Amino acid sequence: MSGRAQLMWDEAVTGYDFGPDHPMDPVRLALTRRLVAAFGLDRELEVVAAKPAGDSTLRLVHREDYIDAVKAASADPAGADGSYGLGTADDPAFAGMHEVSALIAGQSVGAAEAVWRGDVDHAVNFAGGLHHAMPGGASGFCIYNDASLAVARLLELGAERVAYVDVDVHHGDGVQAAFWEDPRVLTISLHEHPRTLFPQTGWPQEAGAGEGEGAAVNVALPAGTGDAGWVRAFHAVVPELLAEFRPQVVVSQHGADTHFEDPLAHLAVSLDAQRAVQVACHELAHEYAGGKWVALGGGGYAVVDVVPRSWTHLVGIAAGKPVAPEAMIPEGWRQEVFARTRQLGPQRMTDGRWPVSWASWEAGYDPADRLDQAVLATRRAVFPLRGLLP
User: Fold this and answer.
1) Active centre residues (catalytic)
2) Residue 183 carries which DSSP code?
3) Radius of gyration of the chain (CA)
4) What is the pTM of this model?
5) What are phi and psi of 11, to 5 degrees?
6) What's the pLDDT band for 1 if we cut at 50, 70, 90?
7) In the sheet that 46-48 helps form, which strands lie side by side, from edge to edge?
8) Tell me, what DSSP letter sits at residue 63?
């Protein structure tokens, strides 16, 4: 099931930099790229730099007045228009913001184009997954919504069914909003419950509208959910929906901020469980979408210990050369970590929890368990709308 794979990378994406005090430190991208190379994965896939998304592409999702506002803030950060979510604490304006945001979007769009054309089976843009940006505004560290743009480009190229699976700790609200009434796009988001985390959306009752009713799926997980519950919830919802929907392409978003070390959220998921879900997305793409898989990054603010390892696993899986969880991390990479951050890098590619144990939904559920209550709420809200038993 390996297939041909492509890694989308342009060193200039590390210019997506909100400043030294912002949690989204671009060093996480640079360190991931170096760790991918340290494991020799460059030899297993094609490394490609796509062109930035042009205005006509950006307009597939974003309003023209918003694009103009980003360009203006990019040229004059001090004059950023806060009514568009620019120049805020979450999304500070910086010089060149439009150009680097369009470059990241271009990598995701290029990944989608390559997969749809059949040039490759899998394509990864770990700099992408900026899923909070709305058609008319920035939000949650996201300027342009590259995930939505990749899906929209697939539709423009003729795709009739695209599945978007988002396992970031935060709700994939911008992608859901972009396709709220579109039955061609099935959006599935597993995230920490909106009661306890930004953006306070993603309730199970949010299921789409109009012709898109039943095409938005939200699993709102209790704070503190760990490996067994997180993987159980994924398998209790995603495979059955994909089997019914029969997507032509799977686009998945792999924010690493579900991890127990992440400073901005409250789940307790290990690197090993993240890897298990990456493997599952790969397998589901082969089972239901002919292997067509676009994999994106996303959040993740433990920028040394977690993000580079998680996304290197993702690249290895897509390349057909998965990195063993017990693999030792090359010393040269750990030296680079210390030189860049004055932190000690991790020594192995595991948190010591592989293989991850979890109980299938078919084996039964506990009505008193908060995780099972969350899964059942989602199944009851959406499954009957798709002709499935809750």
Assistant:
1) 132
2) T
3) 19
4) 0.98
5) -55, -25
6) very low
7) 46-48, 5-8, 122-125, 293-296, 249-253, 162-166, 185-192, 216-221
8) -
